[in-house]
Specification:
About 35% of the residues lie in helices and about 25% in strands. By secondary structure, the protein is α/β, with parallel strands linked by helices. It has 3 domains: about 170 residues, Rossmann fold; about 160 residues, Dihydrodipicolinate Reductase, domain 2 (2-Layer Sandwich); about 60 residues, no CATH class. The strands form 3 sheets. It has a 7-stranded parallel beta sheet with strand order 3-2-1-4-5-6-15, with helices on both faces. It has a 7-stranded mixed beta sheet with strand order 10-11-12-7-13-14-16, with helices on one face. The N and C termini lie far apart (about 55 Å).
Amino acid sequence: MEKVLVLGAGLVTKPLVRYLLDQPDFHVTVASRTVSKAEKLIGGHPKGTSAALNVKDKAKLEEFIKENDLSISLLPYTYHVTVAEFCLKHNKHLVTTSYVSPAMKALDAEAKKKGLLFLNEIGLDPGIDHMSAMKIIHEVEKKGGKIKSFESICGGLPAPEANDNPFGYKFSWSPRGVVMAGRNNAHYLKNENDVVIEGKDLFKNNWKKEVEGLGELEVYPNRDSMIYQSLYGLDDAETIFRGTFRNPGWCNTILKISQLGFLDDTERPELEGKTLAEVTAKLIGAENINDIKKKTAEKAGLDVDSDEISRFEWLGLFSNIVVPADPPSFLDILANRMLEMMPYKPGERDMIVLQHDFIAEYPDNKKEHIVALLVDYGIPNGDSSMARTVSLPAAIATKLILEGKINLIGVQIPNMPEIYEPVLEELENMNIKFEETYTKI
């Protein structure tokens, strides 16, 4: 029986654990700092074990890795290299859903020497995006074509019937990382023009895109798109862009939040016990909370009856609600309030939207517009779409590795047919599938 170690028991882990437990010859150990979370995931299954593990206890972490055939790290990415080094020491395979860091890449030669596979970026984004894009890129190349334009946009959103708040967004986990995206730089290629955007201007650069069946969504750039030029072999492309989908209104609202200073994560103990109105007043330099809504609008360069100010008011930023006692920063105050006001209610569904747009050019000078669209919904009172699309690719890949059906070695991502063909096929069997359209232009 193959033994799999799952490190972490977060919100995306359940579909992965259940998939692996359903395999006839796998035993699954879930190790988590909070053992009750691991126990809940195992659910008393006879081929599952739950265990308490603080990953800072390296001796205990090493022992778990040594005792299993493959480790799946769903820990914060900062721990992946530590896990990988123990996998090297004890000749074990590794799977993660995170981006390959330089420190992880540095382990490639030794992993190859030992015949080990360290498969990273096998989630949703990164993961399903790689696999679905490479499938089409390779198909075009087989027909003698070249990709002249590549755009890939992904977003996790409330399903339309659950989209009932002014922000058009809901959280099933801490929103800190989501709002911190407002500080990221971006880099992409548009019609052969190199475009570099500073984080402070990120949300100024947004536009609308029509998505089949969903109407118009907002798009903004997602970090450094240019690394995909070599990763995907897009040397002939004149446009290379990766972006994020949000519902209309999000970008300008987060832009104003950023400009006002709410993304400052400096700890400010003096904010403890203050009301949200007092926090907002301090942030904008107002002496008191009188007419705080009007003063905030003036500071942000907005009309007092604008949609953005209405969203701030709905969130409670002008209210007498008291700040929690945790060590506060402006960012944490904002994130905590968003989490309180924008959760998924019982029975509501989330939605994943991932769309690739390609322009392919062929030797006869004919061009083709190819669209690959994935729209996937969560299961009411069951697994979210985010959990399924992030964790199931990792689970499927784990099964294939342990069954000897993926024989690659070294530090890899799923951009090769040996990985993406069987994983995409299995996902399609689970109704996680793309609709592809081909239009001659």
